[in-house]
Design brief:
Elements: H1 2-24, H2 27-31, E1 35-41, H3 60-68, E2 70-72, E3 75-76, H4 82-91, H5 125-131, E4 135-141, E5 159-163, E6 185-186, H6 197-212, E7 217-222, H7 234-239, H8 246-271, E8 278-284, H9 290-293, H10 309-312, E9 316-319, E10 327-329, E11 333-334, H11 338-345, H12 362-365, E12 376-381, E13 384-389, E14 392-396, E15 403-406, H13 422-438, H14 448-459
Parallel strand pairs: 1-7, 1-8, 2-10, 3-11, 4-5, 4-7
Antiparallel strand pairs: 2-9, 5-6, 8-9, 12-13, 13-14, 14-15
The chain binds calcium ion.
Residues 42-43, 82, 227, 285-286 line the site of calcium ion.
Length: 470
């Protein structure tokens, strides 16, 4: 009897230990939750990667991702400048719906840093994924507020290597208090001196992936390339020595270095055998600011700062080898869709009360449905506003009648067809106006540069084709 009791006890303990071992196995083995990586370029011109038609700039790694993933040919961002675009991307809400129309305008007399940032009432993708057991890292540019309560480590991220401002020098500089020279901040290491920041960010991304390969993770790789200041490595400049224009040459070299680091991220995922189960989204936060950094948004008209396609339609790739077949997706989608998509793929739920403007893209990208993810899209930035319904797009400015374009026939927005479609103009203007008055007051104003300069940017000529090879 005694022996039997001991044996029974041993069996029970063994089963208990076994069950406990099962309990503590990493989530990966039980649920196969995907990892998520957002690779965000900054001020990248639409036409400046190989797969979108660049004849000058070689981006083999981004092109490979496009070839094996889903190319979203009508991928939009929710604002034509950095700050509000990132506020939308991070939350899945059109940022205008919480008063984040503008970049953080610190030059204004009423500027108060305590109220300039992503409102703490808004949940970020990282907040949502953290609640689902994810480990989240941000490497690079935050630009969603510099006060302590806006810090990324308080917004759902567990690791941060980067800077809070809207940009950074690419080479190590002395900290002279200038915004782009501030030291790198990190909570998981003593930040190394900058070699070339795009490579340093690549190093941190590779390191993050290696350290967290055994658990579900979200990595926000917020590169500043090819945003100004225009600074490139000599070895990359040599590759583009045939480009006569110095700014364009430097820009090409900066995009090249971004591409190299996209390649390093993909290679690491493959080596760690987690590539198939990782969702990688590559996009830019807004269109290229042509004359500022030498970018080209061909075939689109417009640039950073305005609501023509060149300001808001960006290179947009979604790669998820395990679940999504390679190909193209041709209906309009937006960066606001990433938050609900990630949450759904991670096994979570977003609710109506979350008031997200994005939708879960998975049923669309996997062809489970042929419906359009968005019938209507809305934009507002300082003095401009825009609405897209189906293939019609209307842009409203203070100094002229509304402009209407049929994107189905006129992707370069060359023909304003408002005068032939007044009924449509009227109904779209009404819908846009109804949205305006439903939104809260803006939380902070823009420095007046964007407000003043915008109108001229609608009138200037843009390069709508790729440059001839020199
Ligand atoms: Ca930007």
């Amino acid at each position: 009897m005694k022996l039997k009791a001991i044996l029974t006890a041993i069996i029970i303990i063994t089963i208990a230990i076994g069950a406990q071992a099962q309990e503590t196995k990493p989530d990966r083995q039980r649920f196969s939750k995907p990892n998520f990586i957002i690779i965000l370029a900054d001020d990248l011109g639409f036409g400046d990667v190989g797969y979108t038609g660049s004849s000058q700039i070689k981006t083999p790694h981004i092109d490979a991702l496009a070839k094996s993933g889903v190319v979203c040919t009508q991928g939009y961002v929710s604002a034509p400048v950095c700050g509000p675009s990132r506020a939308g991307l991070m939350t899945g809400r059109n940022q205008v719906n919480f008063g984040y129309d503008n970049n953080l305008g610190e030059t204004l007399p009423q500027f108060n840093e305590d109220h300039a940032g992503l409102p703490v009432t808004e949940k970020t993708i990282a907040d949502r994924l953290a609640a689902l057991g994810y480990t989240n890292g941000i490497i690079g540019k935050w630009h969603l507020g510099e006060a302590a309560h806006y810090h990324p480590l308080k917004r759902g991220f567990h690791e941060f290597w980067g800077y809070l401002a809207g940009g950074h020098n690419y080479f190590q500089q002395e900290d002279d208090g200038a915004k782009y020279n501030r030291p790198i901040i990190s909570n998981y290491k003593k930040p190394q001196p900058i070699t070339y920041i795009t490579d340093d960010k690549g190093d941190e991304c590779v390191d993050f992936i290696k350290r967290h390969k055994g658990e579900p993770f979200f990595l926000y790789a917020a590169f500043n390339a090819p945003h100004a200041p225009m600074q490139a490595l000599d070895k990359d400049l040599k590759l583009y020595k045939d480009i006569a224009d110095e700014k364009r040459r430097t820009y090409a070299a900066m995009v090249h270095r971004l591409d190299v680091n996209v390649g390093r991220i993909v290679k690491t995922l493959k080596k760690q055998k987690i590539y198939d189960n990782t969702v990688i989204v590559f996009l830019s936060d807004n269109g290229g600011p042509d004359t500022n950094n030498g970018s080209i948004n061909a075939p689109f008209r417009g640039r950073k700062g305005i609501l023509l396609e060149g300001g808001i339609r960006v290179p947009f790739i979604v790669s998820y080898p395990e679940k999504l077949k390679s190909g193209t997706y041709n209906k309009a989608i937006t960066s606001l869709d990433l938050a609900p998509t990630f949450v759904a793929l991670a096994g979570g739920k977003t609710l109506k009360k979350d008031k997200l403007d994005g939708v879960n893209l998975y049923p669309y990208l996997s062809n489970a449905t042929q419906d359009a993810p968005h019938e209507t899209m809305l934009w507002r930035f300082t003095i401009s506003a825009g609405i897209r319904k189906g293939n019609w797009k209307l842009v409203r400015l203070p100094d002229r009648l509304p402009m209407l374009f049929n994107l189905d026939k006129d992707i370069a927005e060359q023909h304003n067809v408002a005068s032939e479609n007044w009924d449509l103009v009227e109904s779209m203007l009404k819908e846009l106006g109804d949205w305006d008055v439903s939104t809260p007051h803006v939380q902070f104003l823009e420095g007046d540069k964007w407000r003043r300069n915008q109108l001229n940017l609608y009138d200037k000529k843009y390069q709508l084709t790729q440059p001839e090879n020199e």
